[in-house]
Design a protein that fits this description.
The structure is a homodimer of 416-residue chains. Chain A has 416 residues and is mainly α. Chains A and B meet through helix 1, helix 4, helix 10 and helix 13 of A and helix 1, helix 4, helix 10 and helix 13 of B.
Chain lengths: 416, 416
């Protein structure tokens, strides 16, 4: 097996404390080493996780077993939600409107090309699989994981550049498009399995839900947010500004999750909506700035997400020659496929290469897709079998690990 | 059933986000109402949890089901660990030495009397149960939950008074004594079940482990702490001061857990050990103070613990007349039993009543005891059956809920 998730029963809260101590230590030591080598800290956190996870090669399997710890997974999910909220806070809806049309074009190019390439890799390398498996393999390559890129851009102090806004905007749109593609492909496969046809109404429903959520969240959120903070500013107690902001962020993230979108989409929308003027009553009485209050919380939880992603990598099976061809082609398709994104900003002075590179990581979104594929069956054949799943995880890992240094190089080049 | 835990399968990380939003909102609204009524915020957080949990009476069972959510339990455990760490940070080892001898006397009185009274209640009200059940019922009453009292003292701005140090010191010693009693009683019961005898060596082992951990942690921690912070001050990256402090705290908490003590004992010890001078290199370069960095994190996690405790209360069965007599006597034994603690400071000007009241709450420690009792069997008879368990939970709840207003009143009286 190329890579795999290893699940164990949850080890309970007492061990969670030890886990967090180990994860924080690994994150900060890894981040330090990465920065010493001139790389973003997030790369060190990922590789710190890879190192800990693969201690099972020398008989220490405790860290690998953590990938099955539900409480740790919950903390990691909170971490990535907080990260997207923070990134969203750095921009306003106005900023996004300026890049909106371009981001949409970038996103659509970045979804179409990887899907075509992924389908081609399937036809070429998996002739024995059905056309549905090929279609699904393409779909897995479509979505961009905004988490890694957002973190790299922030580590480099570039998260407010026009390129960053296009990448993050396109990644959010990608997420929506990707989920629509996933829903459509999955419907096709389920219909094929029972010999029926895919329902156009079901496809339309997914489309309408996603558009309605995003537009609704931006419109309603902008209406609700000032009133919410104005209300809580009158309550007695401590920590009210941070608590209100988190309730608002978590509420939108859970809303996105409830209609089948990724919670990070809602968290990013919450950050975009929330502006300093909404909580000026807190600021007026001398409380800390919201960014300053969130930073300690996110400095603990965000690294948990990246270390956990690293922990899931099994180096042992990674060089199994039978899978290397498929894995290599899939990685190439994933990387090349997103480079057409630069075409979406042709005719501008924007850094086309950085936009293409910023769209590469598949991260947790790719993992979610692969996981759903494990459960799809046509005429008794699993669409994504264990080997294909491991290959997809390998692709996710490589796209995630190559992005930080590549983006750092590319942004440095454009600045020079 | 008087009260009960309801367990459901874990609802997963996406729902954890919604859960946290609901819990934070309940905590802050409850806290506000309590403060409006002149009570500590923690009482409002507990009762906010009680209210949400009992929405199942009107058909909304979602909140009650949260008591089985592992990720939420993990966050709550982190919250109570952080709370004890913060409380420990406010005192130094020197402060503790000044109250140490008195705290030991207070703790021993506060363990002996509740045990005797609890045994008596068992003989009186449960004549059909074995002597082991009576002994165990006494043992359940011994430990003090320092979490509630620490929080009330902090809400009232009194956590650095001499009374507070004696209460917190005695509660930590209580925890150790209580765990020894638990281990001894459980050994007795297990030996009785197989017809053998309790091993003196096993009792000695528990005693030695606990003493060795506490003394070892205080001695080794004071040696390690300055070196640890001096090392991490030279690393590159952000959030290093907070991460180092949390790794130190979590490390000691996990160490306490590993040898069978409550993790909060280790967290409190970590806070006692850590002093500003250890991390002066961070302070010298203008970073925020550690207390200021921890506060946003704890302001999110600490309320999770108290709301979750409230969620576990089932009001529906609470007025079942068959259990009311036993429940009422147990509550009286729990409260009266700790009032002898004031005798430990006879001859001083210290506020004896406040010390006695501060020792009342059984909180999570009582729950842990009751839970272990559910698994103990002598000759086919369960030591703690479901009804007795519910009664114990009721006692824990009442001792927890009466303490904040009683302590506030008592401290206000002594100040006047």
């Amino acid at each position: 097996m190329l890579l795999a998730f290893v699940s164990t029963p949850d080890a309970g809260p007492a061990s969670l404390i030890l886990v967090l101590a180990a994860v924080l230590a690994a994150a900060k030591l890894g981040g330090h080493l990465a920065e010493r080598l001139g790389q973003p800290a997030v790369l060190g956190e990922l590789l710190g996780g890879v190192l800990l996870g693969n201690l099972d090669l020398v008989g220490l399997g405790w860290f690998r077993a953590l990938t099955g710890n539900l409480a740790l997974a919950g903390l990691a999910e909170l971490g990535v939600v907080l990260l997207l909220f923070e990134v969203g806070l750095e921009s306003t809806i106005q900023d996004m409107k300026q890049v909106g049309a371009r981001a949409l074009v970038v996103a659509m190019l970045g979804v179409a090309m990887p899907w075509i390439l992924g389908f081609g890799v399937g036809v070429l390398m998996l002739p024995g699989h059905s056309v549905y498996a090929h279609l699904y393999l393409g779909a897995v390559l479509t979505a961009t994981s905004v988490g890694i890129t957002a973190r790299v851009l922030r580590d480099l102090g570039r998260s407010q550049s026009a390129e960053a806004r296009i990448i993050l905007g396109a990644a959010v749109i990608d997420d929506v498009l990707g989920l629509i593609i996933l829903a459509v492909t999955a419907s096709l496969i389920q219909a094929a399995n029972v010999g029926g046809e895919v329902s156009a109404a079901a496809i339309l429903l997914v489309l309408v839900k996603a558009a309605a959520f995003l537009l609704g969240a931006l419109w309603l959120g902008a209406l609700v947010s000032p009133r919410l903070f104005s209300f809580t500013a009158r309550l007695k107690g401590t920590g009210l500004l941070l608590a209100t902001a988190l309730v608002f962020c978590f509420g939108l993230a859970a809303g996105a999750g409830a209609i089948g979108l990724a919670p990070i989409v809602g968290a990013y929308a919450a950050g975009l909506i929330l502006e300093r003027v909404h909580y000026r009553e807190f600021a007026d009485r001398g409380e800390h700035d919201l960014e300053e209050l969130i930073r300690p919380v996110s400095s603990v939880l965000v690294p948990v997400f990246f270390v956990l992603m690293g922990l899931k990598v099994e180096l042992a099976g990674m060089f199994d020659p039978t899978h290397l061809g498929l894995a290599a082609l899939l990685v190439v398709a994933a990387i090349i496929g997103k480079q057409v994104c630069g075409l979406g900003v042709l005719g501008t002075k924007l850094d086309k290469l950085s936009i293409g590179i910023g769209m590469i990581p598949r991260g947790e979104v790719g993992l979610i897709f692969a996981n759903i594929g494990l459960g799809l069956v046509v005429h008794g054949e699993r669409i994504i079998d264990q080997t294909l799943f491991s290959t997809i995880v390998f692709m996710v890992l490589v796209t995630t690990v190559v992005t930080p240094p590549a983006l750092k190089w590319s942004l440095g080049r454009s600045r020079a």
